Amino acid sequence: MSQHRRRRPARNVKTGIVVGAAVAVTVGAGVGLGLWASGGDGGGSAQEQASSSSGTSDGTASAGRGASPTPSPTRSYPLSQAPRTIPAVRSHTAAHGPGWRPARGERVVIADARLADEGRLIASELGLTYAGAKKDVKAGDLRLAVNGGAGANPESYTMTVRGGTVSISGPTDAGVFYGTRTLKQEVHGGGTAPEGVVKDQPAKPVRGFMLDIARKNFTAGWIEDRVRELGDLKFNELGLHFSDDQGFRIASDTHPEVVSQQHLTKAEVKRIVALAQSRHITVVPEIDSPGHLGAVIAAHPDLQLRNVSGVATRGAVDISKPAAAKIVDDLLNEYAGLFPGGQWNLGGDEYQALVVANPQASYPQLAAAARQKYGSGGTVSDLTTGWLNDRAATVRAHGRTMRAWNDGFLAASSVQPAKDLRVGYWTGKEYGARQPVAYLAAGRKLVNYNDEFLYYVLGQPNNFVYPTGQRIYEQWTPLVVRGTVSVPARYDAQILGGSFAVWCDLSGSQTEGQVAAGIRMPLRATVQKLWDPRRPALSWAQFKALAGRLG
User: Fold this and answer.
1) What is the pLDDT of residue 53?
2) Any bridge partners for residue 91, and if so which?
3) Considering the entire predicted model, what is its pTM?
4) Residue 135 burial by CB count (10 A; 0-12/13-18/19+): exposed, middle or buried?
5) CA angle (52 as vertex; 47, 54 as ends), nearest 5
6) For a FRET experiment, which of 348, 491, 521, 546 has its CA 20 to 30 Å from that of 538?
């Protein structure tokens, strides 16, 4: 940081080592790094730590905050070790120095009013004093700044620990926030932030967790706890699937009749959204249609899709009826005001009219509506794609960026899904399944929800198995979109990131506490691979132990 008072480096008279000299150490695939800069966090002894690439001993001095933050002329400090965090930082330039740990009375100082929320949060977490904007520099300061770097990754940050102070800067407040998350982990449990410079940024702009609150009612408090957990792990999306056959879980003013008895109030949702915004997390709502609308149909049985024999089709509305479109659009318009984030999931998956051998013969009313809208060659697939495009138009009017599940992009349709729809790719098992490359080659952007690795389905129905963090950590990357095979690397830029998902098909199979425990390590493994998809430096055993130390 340019504002701290410069001091002449002290020289150890016996060794000639210049205190304050820095050595660049890049944290990447296969690089073995020591645990922490100094003791106090249970990181293990020097003998348990791997030596740095510079060849300098990785034993560390336990520099307490009671001593001067500046190295004395008669004392040298070993070269610092890169911090151990989840996700791991991308690079750390090591240096000689005592590092930094928080002490009561020290300050958090901001250089920009936009960082007031970030400053107050980290001050409260570390027991520091939030001082607001100050130009003077004091020993122990944590200083936050937006540097406005043109062309830089907006979620990147630089953290410098030097001379007894810490400075965190980034091109946006989001990047600065992520820097504070790294610092919080570094000093967890009495640890020390190592001397030197961290330069860090995520590989992927979408790092998500999706929660099915429609099939299982989750309390607002439990969701808020997950938001705090996600924020500390540098996730930036929370998906809420709140409408399905089993329930509709958020209060509605336009259609209160569809809302389940157990649900979130709008006040609770606003608190969740506000908490998420304070952690730079976008809440992505989903009202799935035209399938998965059983809760709406229960209140409006006249909208139920029936086949030529009069048999009801579970969860599906009759998209030939204008009233079906109206109620869904009413709800989309209403909730656009409740969820101000820029992302929206339209669903679009598993419309059961399309899984029969001859949809036109089984659902003559849909076939007739398709011909009326698209001419003599119109099909049920065309009508279904048209439904998705019409709902996209409703949401687009609110300035949202939209996605839909991959099986909502119908291969058999002559009507093309809207060009601005992103693909939420979850499965290769759907009717008329296509490889991910089919979407990518068409220029679509894609979010990876690979059900082979990232689907936590309560009760494990339909051959689903609870995913393990180890399998994600060791075998999955954002390029592994379907099954276990990677798509060609040339499509990497179109894969925006990924999302771990909890689906509650058999809702009573686990309690809230069991879900939280079950997804703990998978979440950490997922964000590690979204932040940096390269082979991790730590083994799974080391990574798991680190997660245990960090809490």
Assistant:
1) 33
2) 26, 199
3) 0.87
4) exposed
5) 135
6) 491
